[in-house]
């Protein structure tokens, strides 16, 4: 399939109109119409219903929409992989969730630049839902994630066991103080265990991004559960304090790759990631 056909289809869905799609693609409307006719002939199904307000998807179009972005992404991925820079044998795209970018992803990239000098790197940071899809589709070769969902065609390796600990800016605190408590949503497992340990807690401020929640606590004051590796420097500097005898929760970190990834490239990178993760957790 001509990838331009899929791109044109996505643009019409995005804009809701053949006319607006032609403007965005900088081609004539007749070209857009011809591409869609070609695509519909190849698929043997009508994809759009055109009306005064623009265009809407048919049931077949709804189904094709599930796959069209993948076609475009895989083509872009192929272009990246073919365009190996001079002096390099392959291109490796690595990624992580935002909260794992520093220090783990950064330390891993540093290691690869020193130890895998024949590999060109592309580094990507994204939200978990998109990141796991990118690994599954081949857009990202190897990613660092918390609690990745198990899917056919993915290989998942445990890297390290993080600890979520209760810290506060108040050095005298001995309990979870709801008046200044910031609830950080670390996912369903944390929600379950947090509820079991603090059944009456009803925090009125919550975040779903760890670095942002931690920055708030450091700037405004308060308490919350955070990764030990991220709060350790602030504990040592006296900006934060561990609340004694409070429960700690496990928060494992995983490496995720496609089962079809090139092991000659991904294998050494994964071995280096394990080494870096082991060194980081000892710091």
End-to-end separation? 51 Å
Evaluate the radius of gyration: 24 Å
CATH superfamily heading of the largest domain: Periplasmic binding protein-like II
**Domains, number:** 3
Secondary-structure element sequence? HHHEEHHEHEHEEEHEHEHEEH
Domain HTH lysR-type: 1-58
Family: Belongs to the LysR transcriptional regulatory family.
GO molecular function, one term: DNA binding
Pfam family, one: HTH_1
Could you name the key traits of this structure?
283 residues; alpha/beta; Arc Repressor Mutant, subunit A; D-Maltodextrin-Binding Protein, domain 2; 3 domains; nine-stranded mixed sheet; 11 helices; DNA-binding transcription factor activity; WH-like_DNA-bd_sf; LysR_subst-bd; LysR_HTH_N
Report what the structure shows.
This protein is of the alpha/beta class. The chain folds into 3 domains: 3-82, Winged helix-like DNA-binding domain superfamily/Winged helix DNA-binding domain (Arc Repressor Mutant, subunit A, Orthogonal Bundle), CATH 1.10.10; 90-160 and 252-281, Periplasmic binding protein-like II (D-Maltodextrin-Binding Protein, domain 2); 163-250, 3-Layer(aba) Sandwich (D-Maltodextrin-Binding Protein, domain 2). The chain has helices at 3-15, 18-25, 29-43, 59-65, 68-82, 101-115, 128-137, 188-197, 210-220, 228-236, 263-282; strands at 48-51, 54-57, 90-97, 119-126, 142-146, 154-168, 181-184, 206-207, 223-227, 241-242, 249-258. The strands form 2 sheets. Strands 3, 4, 5, 6, 7, 8, 9, 10 and 11 form a 9-stranded mixed β-sheet that branches. The protein has a two-stranded antiparallel ribbon with strand order 1-2. A hairpin with a 2-residue loop joins β1 (48-51) and β2 (54-57). The protein is globular. The model has no long low-confidence stretch (mean pLDDT 90). This is HTH-type transcriptional regulator. It comes from Mesorhizobium prunaredense. Belongs to the LysR transcriptional regulatory family.
